[in-house]
Amino acid sequence: MSVAVIGAGAFGTALAVSLAAKGPVTLWGRDTGWSESRENPRLPGVTLPANIHVTSDLAQITQQTVLLALPAQSLGGFLAAEGARLDGRNLVSCAKGIDLGTLEGPSVLIRAACPAAIVAVLTGPSFAADIARGLPTALTLACADADAAKALQHQLSTPNLRLYRTTDVAGAEMGGALKNVIAIAAGAAIGAGYGDSARAAVITRGFAEMQRLAAAMQAQPETLAGLSGLGDLVLTCTSEQSRNFRYGQALGAGRDFDARTTVEGAATARAVAALAARLGLDLPISTLIAGLAEGRIAMEQALQILLNRPLKEE
């Protein structure tokens, strides 16, 4: 059974390349002027297999299973305009973030726009370049419908993509979204010259924040300890392949960052800060990253705020 991928960025293109090992794939993007060359400039050095059909016409997305590989802050607008034509299908979100307008995760947006769809989430520690090169990658597939999850797990697993399933959609989504915020903080620590020990502290205390918010969102604690939480957190906080980490490095060093690069964690930090205020949660790292991303506080102020917090038990 063929599948479709909506979103021809680096990650969507990489997923299409991997899935093409099992059969035809349709890849949709707004700008497909590169399609004749069979090399997407967002994923340089990777030639698309012949059985990937690239299109900018949504009418050609006829498959029952569709992966939505769109930025988290673009997903809501896309669904408002095009969701009706996708209703009733298997819709798999590949976005990692929290919508700023609604403070909801991608699965909630999809269910609202496509009430008859089977909704799933694909997330976990992964870089587009690794997937496209055929390197082994393990991801979490979350779907509330256990039978649908099993079917999608078999359909979307490939020679280099190993999927582990869960019914905890909220936990998988929260892990994927929040790790980007903590990755910015880890990058800021390195960019400011605070060293690897500071980064380790950020990762550890950031993971505690992830667990705190996920629990408030009715997620299962063990999900955050898996691929979509801790696994993705470690990868994103320790590799310069991560855009969120590099963005944090630029913040910490006081350098400009390429405004054309999508940094999901910057918007998600603002959403997390709003959620923390609504839920009465203490999420100091996430709140400070929101302030840094908005330019409301400087790196030196952020450090002092963290160091001057009350001493307490771990």
Give an overview in words.
The active site is at residue 179. GO terms for molecular function: glycerol-3-phosphate dehydrogenase (NAD+) activity; glycerol-3-phosphate dehydrogenase (NADP+) activity; NAD binding. Substrate binds at residues 96, 243-244. It is an enzyme of class 1 (oxidoreductase). Residues 3-148 form the Glycerol-3-phosphate dehydrogenase NAD-dependent N-terminal domain. The chain has 314 residues and is an alpha/beta fold. The chain has 2 domains: 3-167, Rossmann fold, CATH 3.40.50; 178-308, Orthogonal Bundle (N-(1-d-carboxylethyl)-l-norvaline Dehydrogenase, domain 2), CATH 1.10.1040. 50% of the residues lie in helices and 12% in strands. The chain contains 13 helices and 8 strands. The chain has helices spanning 10-19, 72-86, 106-113, 128-132, 146-156, 169-191, 196-216, 221-224, 227-238, 243-253, 264-279, 284-294, 299-307, and strands at residues 3-6, 25-28, 52-55, 65-68, 90-93, 118-123, 137-143, 161-166. An 8-stranded mixed sheet has the order 3-2-1-4-5-6-7-8, with helices on both faces. The termini are far apart. The mean pLDDT is 94.
CATH topology of the largest domain: Rossmann fold
Question: What level of helicity do the residues show?
Answer: 40-55%
Residue-averaged pLDDT: 94
Mind telling me the CATH superfamily name of the largest domain?
A: NAD(P)-binding Rossmann-like Domain
Alpha carbon gap, first and last residue:
50 Å
Structurally, how many domains make up the residues?
2
Strand order of the largest sheet: 3-2-1-4-5-6-7-8
pLDDT below 50 for ≥5 consecutive residues: which ranges?
Answer: none
Q: Identify the CATH class of the largest domain.
A: Alpha Beta
User: What is the total tally of β strands?
Assistant: 8
Please report the number of helical segments. Answer: 13
Based on CA atoms alone, the radius of gyration comes out at: 19 Å
Structural class: alpha/beta
Which CATH architecture of the largest domain is right? 3-Layer(aba) Sandwich
The biggest beta sheet is recorded as: 8 strands, mixed
Percent strand: 5-15%
What spatial form do the alpha-carbon principal axes imply? globular
Order of helices and strands: EHEEEHEHEHEHEHHHHHHHH
Oligomeric state of the chains present here: single chain
